[in-house]
């Protein structure tokens, strides 16, 4: 009888569990935002569990990615904290553009000031002024960066 050896590699694990891993990452992004709110309100995971009617163990599992956030959790959180989840979808190409714009934000007081603002639409403002003071801006240019 021949021996059959199974080889384990991280890549094979990732390939086999890709969907589950991706779901956990989405859930962890949501829980990261919830954790920020808890920090700002000085609340513990235990207090969150009590407020939402879950066990502390369940909240811990959500925070560590063992379990994934579901719509029921989101609904209870919104009601308990008078909050609203704002889900936006960014295509990866659009997000790459936004990141490049964020990296290009700079202030130059020598000859002019250029500021790029990235929100739902990418826009740029360029203030040109001979003086080093922004109080007397005389020329404003505006452009859409898309």
From TrEMBL:
Q: Fetch the SMART domains from UniProt.
A: HTH_XRE
The transmembrane segments are none
In terms of domain of life, where is this protein from? Bacteria
* Domain (HTH cro/C1-type): residue spans on this chain: 34-88
GO terms, molecular function: DNA binding
Which residue windows are coiled coil? none
The protein, known as: Helix-turn-helix protein
Record the organism: Anseongella ginsenosidimutans
């Amino acid at each position: 009888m021949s021996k059959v050896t199974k080889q384990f590699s991280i890549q094979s694990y990732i390939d086999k569990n890709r969907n589950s891993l991706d779901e956990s990452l989405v859930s962890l992004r949501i829980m990261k935002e919830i954790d920020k709110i808890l920090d700002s309100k000085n609340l513990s995971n235990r207090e969150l569990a009590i407020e939402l009617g879950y066990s502390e163990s369940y909240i811990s599992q959500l925070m560590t990615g063992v379990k994934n956030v579901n719509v029921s959790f989101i609904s209870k959180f919104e009601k308990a904290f008078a909050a609203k989840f704002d889900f936006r979808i960014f295509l990866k190409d659009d997000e790459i553009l936004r990141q490049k714009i964020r990296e290009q934000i700079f202030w130059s007081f020598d000859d002019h000031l250029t500021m790029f603002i990235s929100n739902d639409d990418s826009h740029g403002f360029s203030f040109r002024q001979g003086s080093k003071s922004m109080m007397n801006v005389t020329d404003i240019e505006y452009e859409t960066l898309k």
